[in-house]
Amino acid sequence: IGSFAFRECKNLKQIKINSLVNIIDDFILSECSSLTEIEIPSSVTSIGNYAFNECIKLKKIKMPSSLKSIGMYSFCCCRSLKKIIIPPLVESIGDNAFFKCSSLEQIEIPSSVKLIGNCSFEKCSSIKQIIIPSSIGNESFVDCTSLSTVTILSTATSIGNNTFFNCQSLTQISIPTSVTSIGFAAFMNCTSLEQITIPSSVI
Questions:
Q1: Separation between Cα atoms, residue 85 and residue 106, nearest integer Å
Q2: In 10 A of CB 16, how many CB atoms?
Q3: For the chain, how far is it from start to end, CA to CA, in angstroms?
Q4: Residues 78, 50: contact at Cβ < 8 Å?
Q5: Taking Cα atoms as reference points, which of 80, 38, 28, 32 lies closest to residue 57?
Q6: What is the pLDDT of residues 155-183, one digit of tens each?
Q7: Quick check: 115 pLDDT over 90?
Q8: Which residues contact residue 16 at a Cβ distance below 8 angstroms, ignoring those fewer than 6 apart?
Q9: Containing H/E element for 197?
Q10: Does residue 33 surpass a pLDDT of 90?
Q11: 47: closest CA among 90, 7, 18?
């Protein structure tokens, strides 16, 4: 199925993707503003850029265990989406992948993820806690104003610029010894932050 195939089909509520499809291509269902749920078949290994961008009524999506990558802006502005479970083979979450998913309350990121892209969860204002298994790109959690608990695992090596900027509910965070760099303004305006431990590994 080619790029842009169903873009702006604003009355489309349901779609069934057959099991021969390997890639959800760029912009394929972008701005399908009536789409409420979708199940991606087990044959799919990659979700393209802007694939479900601005599917504003999308509440549920089931990703297959075969999935390895999530593209840039793939779920950007899916403001009805509440829960995302990222499958265990995914290695990369693209820039702005879940940008402005303002109803997203729960996100599970597997240990297979090696990099969380820039602005990937920016303005996800309903997320309260998250476990981060990998290095974090710039501005990844900007304006996550409900985020109170962050656990960074020992597989992470860096925290990008402005990563937690304006996370005003964040009260504490422990940085593992695997982290060697913290970017500028990484925790700027985290007005509730009471405790932080910076290991000697950080230069």
A1: 8
A2: 7
A3: 48
A4: no
A5: 80
A6: 999 999 999 999 999 998 889 999 999 99
A7: no
A8: 39
A9: strand 195-197
A10: yes
A11: 90
Identify the CA nearest to 50 among candidates 113, 4, 110.
4
What letter represents residue 27's amino acid?
A: F
Longest dimension (CA), the chain: 55
pLDDT at 203: 80
pLDDT tens digits, residue range 46-62? Answer: 999 999 999 999 999 99
Instruction: Quote the DSSP letter at residue 130.
Output: E
Q: Tokens 């390895």: give the residue.
A: 68
DSSP conformation class of 134: S
CB neighbours of 76 closer than 8 A, spacing ≥ 6?
50, 53, 54, 96, 97, 98, 99, 100, 101
What sign does the dihedral 140-142-143-144 (CA atoms) show? Answer: positive
Residue 11 CB: number of other CB atoms within 10 A? 8
Both tokens of residue 62? Answer: 């089931």
Tokens linked to 8:
């702006």
What are 171's two structure tokens? 């009260």
| SS3 state at 158 | strand
- Token look-up 């240990």 returns 111
Find how far residue 196's CA is from the centre of its chain. Answer: 24
pLDDT of residue 25: 94
